[in-house]
Amino acid sequence: MNARFVLVETSHPGNIGAAARALRVMDWHELVLVRPHAFPHADATAMAAGADDVLEGARVCETLEEALAGTGVVFGTSARRRRLDWPEHNARGAAEFAAAGGEPVAFLFGRERTGLTNEELDACHYLLHIPTAADYGSLNLAQAVQIVAYELRMATLANPEPEPPAEPMPAHEDLARFYEHLESSLTDIGFLDPDNPRLLMRRLRRFFARSRPTALELNILRGILKAAQWPERDTAAWRRARDSRTRPRGGTISERDDQE
Ligand code: SAH
């Protein structure tokens, strides 16, 4: 299975090394670092304790978009429950879901002090919350990575050859483009207040994250958005095509057509 572990703005390089070890020991190899504070670093190498291949192979990215490109399902890990209910799994449920889906998957981990921002969680399909003591819910970053890596190993051992999805699913970047298009077209048609887009867009993202449109369905939705943005142009194209099929030879457009 194709699994990517993405750490966002990690402060302590030792945690990056410990995360590399946590992955390597469970036979996961793809570590991506978004704007790490210090990397490469001697503390990372020391904590990796021999998992040098994962550490040296770690890709450093400037943006989350770059880090998630090419993945299908994205899980955002969080020690806290969030304001707006987002579809949520625990580590075991997430791993079983990922192992059954046959799509490239990414797990996103946040900063040691503040976790992931709401905007970063917007890029995820699901929240992954590891259940903990109610009054102390925050694991060390590398330990959270270890739990997810272990559960993913167990789930892939139990389900080594998942069925690929019946229809192609969109990659992360296709979905990101769709959300941009959705936001701009809802603004164009006057539905979205550009000064206050956040909550509506978050709710819509949650809706689409839940319904998981296929690549084809996403194209249909984008076509609908285009037609809503430029109704004259699209209707004209549609009418022209219809008229060329139905217009009597040499005749004019019928009255009925004109009124439609
Ligand atoms: N105070 C931060 C805690 C960050 S802990 C917060 O409230 O979000 C650093 C990272 O470890 C988190 O961003 C998350 O990726 C992971 N993590 C820690 N505890 C977790 C838990 N109970 N469930 C899932 N991920 C957790």
Name the features.
binds S-adenosyl-L-homocysteine; 11% strand; 50% helix; Alpha/beta knot; single chain; Helicase, Ruva Protein, domain 3; 260 residues; alpha/beta; 2 domains; disordered C terminus; 12 helices; seven-stranded parallel sheet
Secondary-structure map with pairings?
Layout: E1 3-8, H1 13-25, E2 30-34, H2 42-48, H3 52-56, E3 59-61, H4 64-68, E4 73-77, E5 88-89, H5 91-101, E6 105-109, H6 118-122, E7 126-128, H7 141-158, H8 172-188, H9 198-211, H10 215-229, H11 231-246, H12 255-259
Parallel strand pairs: 1-2, 1-6, 2-3, 4-6, 4-7, 5-7
This protein binds S-adenosyl-L-homocysteine.
Please compute the radius of gyration using only Cα atoms: 23 Å
Number of helices: 12
| CATH superfamily (homologous) name of the largest domain | SPOUT methyltransferase, trefoil knot domain
User: What is the 3D shape?
Assistant: elongated
The neighbouring-strand order within the major sheet is 3-2-1-6-4-7-5
Poorly predicted runs are 250-260
Number of domains: 2
